[in-house]
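FORM 7B: Structural annotation worksheet

SECTION A. Query
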Amino acid sequence: MSAPREGDPPPAPEPLPHPVVDNHCHLDIAGADLASAAGAIEAAAAVGVPRIVQIGCDLPGARWAVAAAAAHDALVAGVALHPNEAPRLAAAGTLEEALDEIEVLAQAHDKVRAVGETGLDHFRTGEEGRAAQVASFRRHIDLAKRLDKTLVIHDRDAHDEVLAVLDEEGAPERWVMHCFSGDADFARRCLDRGAHLSFAGTVTFKNAQPLRDALVVVPADRLLVETDAPFLTPTPYRGRPNASYLVPLTMRLMAQVRGEDLAELCAAVDANTERAFGGSW
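SECTION B. Predicted structure
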């Protein structure tokens, strides 16, 4: 048998003792179409991840997310313009038009549960694009509040700025800090504002001790898990393609770091996800 190659999908992990939801996945970016998505959904369900939140972060992705959620019982959708998409559209003069379509898509089907991922990204966007990011973020916050959708936030190197905009606009009733990337102090600041904090495979990385410190301070009723697939594959498969069936690797690490029973933590995360995204599906 040949050795696994870097691009090969990792093997399936041991199934979880209680189901959980992958609350942030990009099946379309992973190369799935509406038919082949069924295989990814089945692989995840086989290891205890029977439901997925499919996130669209540009107009084609948002349209795909709505169609996928309508086609597959295991999926619900989030629609938005990613913060790095906003400056590109603003430069083209089409940001307002795109935001108008996101509002239409957010109301296109009752399985569209979230507005996101939106937010701020100071890693890939420089000063020249940040005003467009902020304007787009404000529009998404308003949309989530008006439509009673869950707000899903992307925050990269912009912790203080994200909270400043949220404080100015007023956070919606339900909001999720996707792929939480801060330390324990920032976790407390988000929790004080009502957030659910979602941890991805990054929490398993060797250099992620601040993330693990943050994980410990999150109350059991505000904790979520995600893949952000096909990105952020957990250890020991970092660098290989990520997918929802790898959630058990992150959940096991989370239980270990928190010193909690895995089945009990899975049950809590599953219930939290239903509350955070407006009920079961």
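SECTION C. Observations
The longest helix spans residues 127-147. Confidence is low (pLDDT under 50) at residues 1-5.

SECTION D. Sign-off
Analyst initials: ____
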